[in-house]
Write a structure and sequence with these properties.
This protein has 551 residues and is α+β, with helices and mostly antiparallel strands. It folds into 2 domains: 191 residues, no CATH class; 276 residues, TIM Barrel, CATH 3.20.20.70. It is built from 13 helices and 29 strands. The chain has an 8-stranded parallel β-sheet. Strands 1, 2, 5, 8, 11, 12 and 13 form a 7-stranded antiparallel β-sheet that branches. It starts with a strand and ends with a strand.
Length: 551
């Protein structure tokens, strides 16, 4: 296959663009076979990379679907045909620099340009082109050296492989690409690709239970948590975990400071959960420190700085939060310390680790984003040890081989219908029930192969929610079909008999297997299911949540 290389690098402040396999500055060592494509960059002097991609041609055919895998947990991921458009950040958000930064913070628009033209898409880490039952998959094995993404223009038969190398200082041989190719059925290609990674043994397990976020958000206290813990008695034989989410800490970043809302402390809560026979889970944003936190005020030197030397905003939640720099020795030791206390002194069995993308927003220290994220995840795995790690808000390729479970969708929100911010402040990570359902379906291949898929919660309660019963049922059905982390945020003690029966049903993982799934049109999805030899079809309108067929 003929390939066109584009390599941009910086020497003595000058950016040089080259398409050569060898120059005075470097030589490329290339492996190019039908099954594997690899590139090692051998430098002849030290230089900093700016960009690196290789362009190819690919003949797209009628009936082709391109899989656009999103950057991180919350990013929309689905199959597209040549007439579809992948939209980026809403242009309204670009009016003001702060609004633009906030809109782009969660996603990949600092990495990838969105053309917003029909048939032009990109996919992170791996991708496939599906035509009927035939699937052609390309996947990267070199994500620890930087994020890989695939870019296509289906209407121009264009196919390129990119490496996000911005900021990478090359001083020794550097593996740019290591791409493998498989062709077969959907399950065959993913079995082959993910078999090449070292995965946690827990990836094939399951967690069913409770998380506090989607009913109370930060407004939790000891009384509410213990009440809801008792409320889970109606599914005590099916549930195995009870997780405390955000709100138990004084401020984000001050994880160990006593909080008046939990007067007996968090060890007391973990002990109560264990007495019920459940694993105890707890939420942490380990890299984040709220702007008003004690950690920020007392240790500003621990924070990642922007180009002007000011603390870099890593999250717009909680009035804004900065990011602890894992390359700062004291910050690193602080992270290790609070994990030690939470997991060993308090006794929690699982940590849900959130907003992890914040560590690698900006390249630094001669490393590109993917290298930084890899280092961050290695630190977190070391801290968590043999306890369970549920990743959230994490670049997906960085979760491979590290996370026991991982969020694969955006937040579901408390309203099934789109809210105004989904139309005004559009990006591919905004909370939305429809996007969550979409991602659960089109990231189903990760479940059990890479980690336990966490499709976010489902609901059965009647209050503090704008879902019809049909929409609740659809969300729960999809979560159970596509995920192995099955959580509610309801006080199940307030359920009626019917709700309690459905909770027990959806906490038990189904034996059904998805054979195929695709969009019928822009709103309707069809899923073909094998139920122990019996063929079934689930067909529904994603926008309304109305089910046309489930039999």
């Amino acid at each position: 296959m003929e390939r066109n290389y584009v390599i941009k690098y910086k020497i003595a402040g000058e950016v040089i663009t080259s398409d050569a396999v060898e120059t005075d500055a470097y030589a490329l060592e290339i492996t190019d076979t039908a099954e594997r494509y690899a590139v090692v960059l051998n430098p002849k002097c030290d230089f900093e990379l700016v960009d690196f991609y290789v362009e190819n041609s690919h003949e797209f055919k009628n009936g082709d679907w391109f899989y656009a895998g999103g950057y991180q947990s919350w990013t929309k991921s689905r199959e597209y045909k040549c007439s579809d458009i992948l939209k980026g950040v809403n242009k309204i958000s670009k009016i003001h620099p702060l609004a633009n930064h906030a809109a782009r913070l969660f996603g990949d628009t600092y990495i990838v340009d969105y053309s917003e033209k029909p048939g032009e898409f990109h996919s992170h880490c791996y991708t496939y082109i599906r035509n009927g039952k035939n699937v052609k998959l390309w996947g990267s094995l070199s994500e620890k050296t930087g994020f890989t993404y695939f870019k296509v223009k289906m209407n121009e038969n264009y196919f390129a492989i990119h490496k996000d190398v911005l900021g990478k200082l090359v001083t020794e041989p550097y593996t740019v690409f290591d791409i493998v190719y498989f062709e077969g059925t959907y399950d065959e290609v993913f079995d082959s690709y993910f078999a090449m990674f070292d995965m946690p043994e827990t990836r094939g397990g399951s967690m069913s239970g409770y998380t506090s976020w989607y009913n109370y958000f930060q407004k939790i206290d000891e009384k509410i948590i213990l009440r809801d813990l008792d409320g889970l008695n109606c599914a005590k034989n099916e549930a195995n975990i009870f997780q405390i989410d955000d709100g138990y800490e004084t401020f984000v970043g001050d994880w160990l400071d006593p909080c008046e809302k939990f007067p007996n402390g968090m060890k007391y809560i973990a002990d109560k959960i264990h007495k019920k026979g459940y694993k105890a889970g707890i939420w942490i944003a380990p890299f984040s420190a709220q702007r008003v936190s004690r950690t920020t005020k007392e240790h500003p030197d621990w924070l990642i700085k922007d180009a002007k030397g000011k603390p870099q905003i890593g999250c717009i939640g909680w009035g804004g939060a900065y990011t602890l720099d894992i390359y700062n020795d004291e910050a690193r030791e602080y992270i290790k310390h609070f994990f030690d206390v939470i997991l060993n002194d308090w006794g929690y069995d699982m940590v849900k680790l959130d907003f992890l993308y914040s560590q690698c927003i900006t390249p630094r220290n001669g490393k590109c984003r993917g290298e930084i994220m890899y280092d961050g995840m290695q630190l977190l795995r070391e801290c968590v040890g043999d306890k369970l790690l549920l990743g959230c808000g994490i670049p997906m390729s960085a979760a491979i081989g590290v996370c026991d479970a991982c969020r694969i969708s955006c937040d579901v929100d408390l309203s099934y219908a789109d809210k105004i911010y989904n139309r005004i402040h559009v990006n591919n990570e905004m909370l939305c029930a429809q996007s969550a359902i979409n991602n659960s379906i089109f990231r189903r291949h990760l479940n059990g192969r890479v980690f336990m898929n966490d499709p976010d919660v489902f609901f059965l309660r009647n209050d503090n929610l704008k879902f019809t019963w049909e929409q609740k049922h659809l969300l729960a059905r999809i979560n159970n079909l596509c995920g192995n982390v099955l959580f509610v945020s309801d006080n199940a003690g307030a359920y009626n008999k019917k709700q309690a029966e459905y909770l027990r049903k959806y906490f038990k993982k189904t034996d059904e297997k998805i054979v195929a799934a695709e969009y019928i049109d822009n709103e309707n999805i069809r899923i073909d299911i094998d139920d122990n030899g019996t063929a079934k079809v689930l067909e529904f309108n994603l926008k309304t949540g109305k089910v046309a067929r489930d039999n």
